[in-house]
Design goal:
The complex is a heterodimer of chains A (about 450) and B (about 110). Chain A has about 450 residues and is of the alpha+beta class. Chain A is built from 14 helices and 11 strands. The longest helix of chain A has 29 residues. The longest helix of chain B has 18 residues. Chain B has about 110 residues and is mostly helical. Classes of the chains: A alpha+beta (about 450), B mainly alpha (about 110).
Chain lengths: ~450, ~110
């Protein structure tokens, strides 16, 4: 039986180690721990904490070229100052305390703004699941097969839902044509959100079947503006693009799950129709099961990913499934940190606040800008070079005009084959490095 | 001239060269302990590995995760051409300091 390392020590290590080396080091420590005691693990946790904190401080000093310069003399002078001028020292101390408090509050404010919790029942337990392709360092969205496997096997994440965003022209009787954001989702997405419709029903599993009637659940604003809040709207027809749908439900005001949708139709993506890593790009989210944590979910998903890599090495060898915060799944790794900062400057005043239902794209970026970001990601995947994508993203964020359908998945386009990958730089050591050092 | 390598940095780089190919933290710690007879803090090795990678003397990649390690991947490191050059320079510096010393002292090397 595998021995478990001390939980608290593990927790400390998770917090102390930089993310880029965390997995490797904790795996190595677990390996060494097998022939050592719990006390040894604790010693290592403390040793790693000390070493990496010192290293971080050293790096910070190097970058800022600053040191605290605190010495015994400073301390003595401080005490002397307090004794001679207590009033002045008190006012100075108070000023610093206020400045620190203002700093801490603003950081807390920005943090809560950058990483909002979905305003849903237990919204903090909703997580995103994604497949990371290590060969081209980006997210693999054609994961319909993986979604089916995750849904049937994962125990620590439940109500797993798949969805994608599309834009459709809504055409109704005598109403002007309006472009709306439509969520193609599995029925489980409504269970995940735990929000009931105000009228009719949500999507159900039988709606996802091939050949089932075309149904749609509409949002509150659509119901109010296009159907004059008629309670008899259930059963009426509305055209989305070329397809006529029957309205089966109306969601409450403000509901916009998964991002900023105003209508919802069933996601009909049958894995049998596609080979692995083919088919439409989808996103997957779920809710942590009772008792499960982010870490246990990640461990289970990693194990499952390993099994899939073994079973399907051709397609899954370089894929690493991972659990991310729901709001983070809308951006790739590099963009996440950039956009968190960017969104502070481009958030439209007042729009993000007081929304009763989840709208992560509005929490992070306005809807169209979020769509643009996703569009940029897709173009990047199609070999646009990074500086060019960055220039475009920046230009639009600053206020340049954007095409209307940027980032919109075109369903008429045939399913893509595996993306041809950009040439990876060779491993530096492969390029002429000697395997043995010649010590002459 | 490049930044001089510290003694421990040299030990880590030499252990990687001795082990050949892609190696990860555990064998590096073992190799240094075995060859030097000293007890080495794993944290010191990992901090040094990271620093050497930042300097471009090492490169690293994640291996496939294995069930024995609880689904965690190994971070395998490899010495780069710049790393080999730095080791050679360090060796030359030491050799030049030894040059001209009496043979008796040299044998103690």
């Amino acid at each position: 039986m595998t021995r478990r390392s001390p939980r608290l020590a593990r927790w400390i290590l998770e917090r102390v180690l930089p993310p880029d080396v965390r997995e490797g080091i904790s795996g190595d420590l677990d390996e060494m721990f097998r022939r050592r005691s719990g006390l040894w693990y604790w010693r290592q946790a403390l040793s790693f904490s000390t070493h990496f904190t010192r290293e971080r401080l050293r790096g910070w000093r190097r970058r800022t070229d600053m040191t605290t310069g605190m010495s015994w003399l400073d301390f003595k002078l401080g005490v002397r100052m307090l004794r001679r001028y207590p009033g002045l020292t008190f006012v100075g101390g108070l000023g610093m305390a206020v400045a620190i408090a203002v700093g801490v509050t603003s950081f807390a404010f920005f943090y809560s703004s950058m990483h909002p919790v979905l305003p849903l029942a237990e919204g903090d337990r909703i997580v995103g699941l994604e497949n990371w392709d290590t060969s081209w360092n980006n997210q693999e969205e054609r994961i319909i097969h993986d979604f089916v496997a995750w849904r049937s096997e994962l125990k620590s994440v439940e109500d797993l839902a798949a969805f994608r965003q599309v834009q459709r022209n809504m055409i109704g009787d005598g109403q002007p044509v309006e472009q709306v954001s439509v969520g193609e989702m599995t029925a489980s997405a409504f269970r995940l959100a735990r929000v009931s419709p105000v009228l009719g029903r949500p999507l159900i599993e039988s709606d996802e079947r091939k050949g089932a009637a075309e149904v749609v659940v509409i949002g509150y604003t659509v119901w109010k503006n296009r159907f004059a809040s008629r309670t008899s709207v259930i059963g009426e027809s509305v055209r989305l693009g070329a397809t006529v749908h029957t309205i089966v439900g109306v969601m409450p005001e403000g509901f916009a799950f998964p991002a900023s949708e105003r209508a919802w139709v069933p996601l009909r993506a049958d894995p049998l129709d596609y080979e692995r890593r083919r088919g439409p790009g989808i996103m997957v989210a779920g809710r942590l099961a009772p008792g499960a944590t982010f870490e246990t979910a990640q461990a289970e998903l990693t194990t499952l990913g390993t099994r899939m890599a073994t079973a399907f090495p051709k397609t899954h060898d370089r894929l690493r499934p991972r659990v991310v915060r729901y709001t983070e799944m809308w951006f790739d790794d590099e963009r996440r940190s950039d956009l968190n900062i960017l969104q502070i400057f481009i958030r439209p005043q007042g729009r993000a606040w007081g929304r009763p239902w989840p709208d992560p794209a509005r929490h992070l970026l306005p809807r169209r800008r979020a769509a643009r970001v996703r569009g940029c990601r897709r173009r990047a995947a199609r070999h646009l070079d990074r500086p060019r994508v960055e220039r475009r993203l920046h230009g639009r964020a600053v206020g340049g005009a954007a095409p209307r359908r940027v980032g919109v998945h075109d369903e008429r386009r045939p399913a893509r084959g595996p993306r041809s990958r950009p040439a990876r730089p060779a491993h530096p050591a492969d390029a002429g490095a000697e395997r043995r050092l010649t010590l002459t | 001239m490049r930044e001089a390598l510290g003694e421990f940095e040299q030990l880590v780089l030499l252990a990687i060269v001795q082990l050949e190919g892609d190696v990860y933290g555990v064998p590096i710690v073992d190799e240094i302990e075995r060859r030097t007879g000293r007890t080495v803090a794993p944290a010191a090795v990992y901090v040094t590995l990271r620093r050497l990678e930042e300097k471009g003397l090492l490169s690293s990649k994640m291996s496939a995760p294995t069930a024995e390690r609880g689904g965690k991947a190994k971070r395998c490191v490899k010495i780069t051409t710049a790393g080999l050059a730095s080791l050679r320079e360090a060796r030359q510096v030491i050799d030049s300091m030894w040059k001209g010393l009496d043979p008796g002292l040299r044998t103690e090397k």
